[in-house]
Amino acid sequence: MPPPPAPAAGPIAAGGIAVVGAGIAGLSCARALHAAGRTVTVFDKGRSVGGRACTRREEPDAGAVLPFDHGAQYFTVKDERFARVVERWRDEGVVAPWTGRVAAVEGDTFAVKHTPGLMVGVPGMNALPRRLAEGLSVHSDRRVTALERTGAGWTLRFDEGPPAGPFEQVLVTAPAPQTAALLTGHAHFTPAVRRAEHQACWAALLAFDAAPALPFDGAFLNDDRLPDGSPNPLAWAARETSKPGRPPTPERWTLHAKADWSDAHADRPPAAVLPEMVAAFTALVRQATGETLPAPTFQTAHRWRFAHVKNAAPAEGAGECLYDSAAGLGAAGDWRLGGRIEGAFLSGLALAERAAP
């Protein structure tokens, strides 16, 4: 089943609630507000919804499309509130189990792990945010740079174009540093947001005309060192073609670098990082399986500046979000609950409940 179409933006209506960020937290929040009958408008700096729950389509040749889940690789379900939503998505064909063989690779051995309950979007991870965004007013390519409060409410200012507003409330679901920058001087909980810490992640996207039939479809690359003794930059590798609903050819792999390595190399250009990641994957595969990877026929790299949550923001009480009722400002995100798609969804849901009880 193809994913729902991207949401149409439509005109920006003043009043109601503005949500900044169209990742899973922002869309979860906006969808709950919309279902409660509130007027809600979503703004995002990106070209499409989803944040790191995304699918990148590369077209190296005319007519050839290579899809990669270059952000979130899969998700799991633990909370009953999220489980109910995921069950509906599964019935609709928006998500499906990923039953690929996931291994732990250490030294010259690998062990396939028992990993039930891994879920993915179909035909890509971006199916989740697109489903959440259905029926919402979402404005992409709108980077919010400042909030201004007047007697009429909150006005949003952007890096380009006219301001929007006034809005009764503004709920920010961007990564913690960006959220704190917008809310400083406006919301009492901003110091808590500042204490959340993110780490970067480099992703390498590889395609092969033909590749060895490796004995795993996903792998945690746990070694600190490569066979030659140099530091291992990689944390994860996944065969895109093993996930449900993906084109079976050509062979495609997504690699994720370790968080500390990504932080240390965050400011390097993709062209400098990519060869190191490809060489590391080739060496680890050869050591663990004896197989030799051919040179990729396509390769590129992407840096996620705020990929991993190193330290979650402390809560006010036991809340899953942060909210200032006097100011009409709130914040949510995976940085509040320690990462994971489920955490982002629940944080956004909690913020909607605080903003529109």
Automatic annotation (TrEMBL):
Transmembrane segments: none annotated. GO terms for molecular function: oxidoreductase activity. SUPFAM superfamilies: FAD/NAD(P)-binding domain. Residues 117-354 form the Amine oxidase domain. This is Protoporphyrinogen oxidase.
